[in-house]
Amino acid sequence: MRDKPTKWIACLREDIRQACGEGWMVRGIGRGLVQKVQLTVRFGDGNRTSIVLGPKAKSDPDFVPWVGTSAGWILKISTDISLIMKSQGKGLAEAYELVKQKNESGLNGALDWEQLARRFKSHKTSNGKKGSRVWNRNYRTPIARTLLILTSETSIASGYSVLKTLVERHGGEPGSASRRLRIQYAAEFLRFAFKNGANRSWLPPEELNTFIGEKATIHKLSEHRTRE
Asked: Which of 34, 82, 163, 183 is the one with CA 20 to 30 A from 203?
């Protein structure tokens, strides 16, 4: 008896079927805990073809593993491949190459990060006036600061370094609500960027407490003052 797929896998497979068609399926392949992502398309005549999404070498920093945080990216790239196959009559592998070329040419400069930020804003404000109020109150300043780091710091090359720089410039008190939300909103934007074509290296770490920090308790402060 086969084990039932976890919730994120079941949801992802259903989303792909809805977006691409009944013959589309994804799964994890390979040995070990970290698996590659395989996309398979089954055609009406029963024939099928498969490709691996993302770099094939696990040592590649942009390797995309079969994990829940990759689900948005997998759905987006599968949908893009499907659209090219249907509109241009391309095969699976050829359509994937065209998608990769488009993503690589479209995400290499400051203007592209700015475009992603505009798309992120449009995504967050799609609920009309309520969405716009939430954006202006919560997201506008953190995303503007994150965008400035991405477009002005040539040494920044990963989601980790983006959040580290954000803390260094606009940290606030460790463990404070303002600092926590600032980091969470920036991380949300980086995840959106990955889902929409940015390399995996731009994903923030799963654990954000390193950047958020902890509040100093009264007990700890009194101990520190006693030592002084």
From this structure: 82
